[in-house]
Amino acid sequence: MPTVPEALALMDYGPAPESPAIALDWLKDRAFGHFINGAFTKPGQTFAVTNPATGAELAQVTQGTDDDVAEAVNAARAAAKGWAKLTGGQRARYLYALARLMQKRERLFAVLETLDNGKPIRESRDIDVPLAVRHFYHHAGWAELLADEFPGMRPHGVCGQIIPWNFPLLMLAWKVAPALAAGNTVVLKPAEFTPLTALLFAELCVEAGLPKGVVNIVTGDGRTGAALVAAEVDKIAFTGSTDVGRLIRRETAGSGKALTLELGGKSPFIVFAEADLDAAVEGVVDAIWFNQGEVCCAGSRILVQEQVAERFTARLKLRMAKLRLGDPLDKSTDIGAVVHPTQLERIRGIVDKAIAQGAILHQAPMPEGPGSFCPPGLLTDLGAANIAHTEEIFGPIVTLMTFRTPGEAVELANNTRYGLAASIWSENITTALDIAGQVKAGVVWINGTNMFDANAPFGGMRESGFGREGAREGMLAYLTGDEASGKERKAPEALSPLPGSASGDTVDRTRKLYIGGAQKRPDGGYSYAVPGAQVPLGSRKDIRNAVEAAHKASGWSKVTGHNRAQVLYFLAENIAARGKDLGPKDEVALAVERAFYWAAWADKYDGRVHSTASANITLALKEPFGVMGVICPEEAPLLGFVSTVMPAIAMGNRVVAVPSQSNPIPALDLYQVFDTSDLPGGVVNIVTGPRGELTDTLAKHDDVAALWVFAEAETCTLAETLSAGNLKPVWTEQRQRDWTGPAGQSRSFLRRAVQVKTVWVPYGA
Ligand code: NDP
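A: This is the predicted complex of the input protein with NDP.
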């Protein structure tokens, strides 16, 4: 026993273990089947689930087969009608009951999660479980308010939900709560490494008296996930790696299944010279050493301003050395076990490569003994191309680079294919908000990091996926009701290319493409005939030129909504002035009305301020995507073009539009309207020609951030499949819309023309 002075000199922590008994009792001799139609099935072929801190087996869990998945989907299908028919208030009662039951078993959930995943009990107890409960309460509220707040919308039906191992219960809550609130039924597949809290949750569903089949849980590995993606479900919601997200995008292409993807990240953590450096050091602890760094939005790339880099790095190393690695069940442990030896191997593999590429690793030695433990690490002296800087490590290893100017910080921050989150540290709110606006990320924390709430939308941009979870925005991902209901679209007749102008006239009357604010001959020099005229046959090269022109017109995305509105009103007036030259009188009149309508929205589609943590303003800003592709409908050549291109540009996007193939003339003739309306060159670009080929190029193009396709099934499928490259969100409609009525100016055009950026701004004197 040390004396008091000795103890004070040591200042070490005593052990503070949480007993695993509560969870081990629950697990005792358990082999789990799936949870289907309100009951557990008999275990099938099972595999062992282990504790990553010790390697000890915790339970046997069933490997889900195709038949198991089909059975679960059938149960969910059978329950769907009844569940959707309940009033929102009735569904809310079940969600409240689930929240209460989870609260009652908080300790069991926390201990079980820590045993299964390896995360420190402090985190599962204080973060994972309370947030999961909060999600059920919050969404019980949405169920209650559904009819008032989402009029005309309805659930998708059956949702397949696939979740990863880093926040097993919390990801379940993020997926299941909104789906049920919206009136969907679900089949959930937890990760192979961490299925246990989901199975405990299944017991709560029984206890809450949830109607059979509303929640189904099928365990297994990636094969079970793949079977769920292929099953007869109406929507897939996936959280996991970008590679698997891409695979799912391809697999679901053309199936009509709705899709949301929450994928990986490589989020910047930007420290300005004027930041509170001690606070920023604590921020790094929460950004990358929370949950062993196994966090999709982990601040894994520190960018620190040069003049404070040395001071900051020194303090960071000191702090890192004080973190306690060890038994996840000990309440004074900061860093627990990595989820599985394979993940530890993966982390080590990337770090070794980073070192081989010149980086310097600052890290305590790897501990001996059982369990997969990885001490916190810092990589310095690395170039922007170093693997540790580009690849998601998904472990407690952070990189550090310096920058000189705010502009350079933004450039480095955005130098990644991902766009999930960013953390910005500065005591100057003007600088912080300026940078928040410029980083490409779905979530931005100012002077903070890894803050989450059920009422704050969460989700990514670029290869971090699309769709939002949480808040009103997240509810929309589980609702539908704005889809077109007309006839199935048919492919236009094949066109016959002609070299140059075949009119035989000395004057070349062939219309031209419209790119970068100027008329351009098609690159290949070919045209094709449509009734009464020849039109340019655009090619891949023309699309690429148009995308480049749209890229350069980035100023349009920065001007005020008021400025955009003025240009669009002027444009509407000029369409009216051109009148019948552009098309049939009625269609022109409607196009003018439509143009005025979208012009009116340019400065009114506001973001929101969400109520989340105290002393915090959580903003949900609506940002344009940037460059969008629009494959306009064949029908209504003028009205369809105006109805689809105008909302996109009203929201600040620049567009590459492919007009009706069989009658692109009204769209091409709009160039004069654009030229006389002060529309900056490059904001609207028009490429005519074979829709399939042009869609192919737009879908593959990495600089096209979103794509709308109003076309026949084949082209829609092509667009969805090829969009998997940069994971751009694609909105496809195979059925015709009634462009003359309210469907022609549905609110969904606005919703799909923007992406939400959530900005957390804490305050306090
Ligand atoms: P995966 O993307 O492989 O797994 C996520 C979920 O998808 C799991 O339930 C998994 O099943 C399932 N799955 C795997 N393959 C398929 C498939 N073909 N079709 C449908 N579902 C499938 O991520 P991992 O768990 O393997 O982790 C690998 C890397 O992914 C990590 O190192 C990290 O970089 C990243 N990651 C990102 C996450 C995020 O939140 N953004 C979360 C987790 C990982 P099972 O696990 O049972 O094989």
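Residues 502-507 have pLDDT under 50 and may be disordered. The chain has 27 helices and 33 strands.
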